[in-house]
Amino acid sequence: MTNTGPAVAGGRVDERRTDTRQQIRIVAMELFAEQGYDKTSLREIAERLGVTKAAVYYHFRTKEEIVGSLFDDQLTAITELVEWGRSQPSGPERSRGIIERYSAHLAGTGVNPHMVRFLQENQTAVKGLSMGTRMQDAFQALAELLAGPDAGIACLLKMRLALVAVHFGSFAKEDLPGTPEERRAAALEVALELVGVPVRRDGMNSQS
């Protein structure tokens, strides 16, 4: 008897499953950003996506698993950036490298833009998630690297605003005019100004 199951379909079955998993994550983050993490159910995620709740449950048993999978992707990249920063001597070039590398990461990896809004508008929910706490700690570590040792509150706030500027330039659409590349370049310039290093006009986005 001929096998017409997943083996015959080749990689397409796995590709469809991967696509469904990714679509669930995208739709879930949209809903979390729109109406809040606590007010969103797996049923609503399924309805928005146009699948059964069982289909969502196949990939994720809880909302925390959905958020955790997204945070895990980004946490790895940010942790690597923190480790790179700690391996560099303190000073303007380290600050430049952190901002430029972070901007390149957001531009090149398809980061879910709704995650930024989710983090901003669901602080209470995020604090209750272990992955959210680790993400906040990683961002805090980046801000501290940018600020340098013994920095005051105002300086740390400015460094956080620099990271937010990079975020906003990467994900703003209707909010700002220009092409994605122009918005990203403008955000990079603002962020570098906030951290106190000049913009490189030739190859300013390059990484050493």
Give the structure's gist in a few sentences.
The protein has 208 residues and is an all-alpha fold. It contains eleven helices and no strands.
Give a written overview of the molecule.
Helices cover 72% and strands 0% of the residues. By secondary structure, the protein is mostly helical. The protein is built from 11 helices and no strands.
Task: Fill in the keyword field for this structure.
single chain, 208 residues, mainly alpha, Arc Repressor Mutant, subunit A, Tetracycline Repressor, domain 2, 2 domains, 11 helices, 0% strand
List the helices and strands and how they pair.
Layout: H1 6-9, H2 12-35, H3 42-49, H4 53-59, H5 63-86, H6 92-108, H7 114-121, H8 123-127, H9 130-147, H10 153-171, H11 180-195
Helix pairs in contact: 2-3, 2-5, 2-7, 3-4, 5-6, 5-9, 6-10, 6-11, 9-10, 10-11
Give the end-to-end Cα distance, rounded to a whole number of Å: 58 Å
Shape: globular
Radius of gyration: 20 Å
Taking all residues together, what is the mean pLDDT? 80
Under CATH at level 1, the class of the largest domain stands as Mainly Alpha
Strand segment count: 0
Strand content: under 5%
Structural class: mainly alpha
Oligomer: single chain
Give a quick account of the main beta sheet: strands, pairing sense, barrel closure: none
The domain count comes to: 2
Q: What is the fold-level CATH name, i.e. the topology of the largest domain?
A: Tetracycline Repressor, domain 2
The stretches of 5 or more residues where confidence is low (pLDDT under 50) are 1-16, 203-208
Range of helix content: over 70%
Architecture of the largest domain, according to CATH?
Orthogonal Bundle
Helix segment count? 11
